Amino acid sequence: MFRRVLIATDFSPCAQRALELARANFPGAEFKVLHVMAEDSPFTPTEALLELEMLVSDAWKGEAGLPGHEVVQGTPTQQVMASAKEWGADLIVMGVSGLGGQGLGSVAEGVVRASKTPVLTVQI
Amino acid sequence: MFKNILLAFDGSEHARKAAGLAADLARQYQARLCVVHAYDPIPDYLGEPFLQETISRRTEAADRIMEQALVLVGEQPQLETDVLEGPAAEAILRVAEVRQVDLIVMGTRGLGQLSGLLLGSQSQKVLSHARCPVLLVR
Fold first, then answer.
1. pLDDT in tens, A9-25
2. Is A111 in CB contact (< 8 Å) with chain B?
3. Average pLDDT over all residues of chain A
4. Among A25, A96, A112, whose Cβ lies nearest the Cβ of B2?
């Protein structure tokens, strides 16, 4: 069904749920996990990459290969879509709200508005 | 795995794509697929005979849209349909709640008067309030 699934994470609990849901429901797909560092990110690029690596190796613990994962810098909405396009994703999975709080977050709304690729939003 | 999928269908181009995807998912997961169509609310200030006439016109149009949806989703392990009076977002959320669906599939933009908006107000409302994952298709 979906063959290339891009999971966008901001390290929020909601994004974590999105990752787990994607893994459970699309077992045959190839995954890529993306973190976009916005300007106001509390991390340095190295810290962000380390965090992402920990998250990925935790989620795929005990499996043969880890999925691709990448940290990019820029505007989250734009970078998620650019990455989906470049990698040829046929599905984007992300949390509906970000670190900010509840309801429809601005990044999810931005991606849903503009993405030509189907978007699966997940809540806690 | 998804076991109970809701497809929100308004006959728009985005909804037609969403229907194809929801149908494939339901077949793959052997899930129950529920197609929901909501027609525009009928203003209650309409007096007779206009009220009856409007109701039958709206429900006939709604039935035709539901027929289109059923053609698009094709053979399904378990198929159900719900035609409700709108607003669409409320109808979709209500069915999602009652039927305990675990996935809502819908188009990014609908028909309606504001179909020119990048994200339909109904889709936005569903996204903000749904208690299950939402798959948006353009």
1. 999 999 999 999 999 99
2. no
3. 95
4. A25
CA nearest neighbour of B59 among B48, B49, B51:
B51
Q: How far is residue A117's CA from residue A88's CA, in Å, rounded to a whole number?
A: 9
Decide if A10 contacts A106 (C-beta within 8 A).
no
In angstroms, the CA B44 to CA B9 distance is: 25
Looking at the DSSP bridge assignments, the partners of residue B105 are B7, B135
The radius of gyration of chain A's CA atoms, rounded to the nearest angstrom, is 13
CB < 8 Å to B119, chain A: 109, 112-113
pTM of the model: 0.94
At A58, give phi and psi (nearest 5°): -70, -45
Give me B107's structure tokens. Answer: 């188009």
Buried b (16+ CB within 10 A) or exposed e, A78-89: ebbbebbeeeeb
Tokens of B116: 């020119």
Assess whether pLDDT exceeds 50 at residue A86.
yes
| ipTM here | 0.95
Cβ within 8 Å, pair B133-A123: yes
**Structure token pair of residue A63:** 């499996």
Higher pLDDT, B48 or B88: B88
- Report the alpha-carbon distance of residue B46 to residue B56 in Å, rounded: 13
- List of long-range contacts for A51-60, beta carbons under 8 Å, 24+ apart: A51/A11, A52/A9, A55/A9, A55/A11, A55/A16, A55/A19, A59/A19, A59/A20, A59/A23, A60/A23
Give A32-44 as a DSSP string: EEEEEE-TT-SS-
The first and second tokens of residue B104, run together, are 């809502």
Cross-chain residue pair B136–A118, CB shorter than 8 Å? yes
* Residue indicated by tokens 């035709």: B64
Of residues A24, A108, A118, nearest to B137 (C-beta): A118
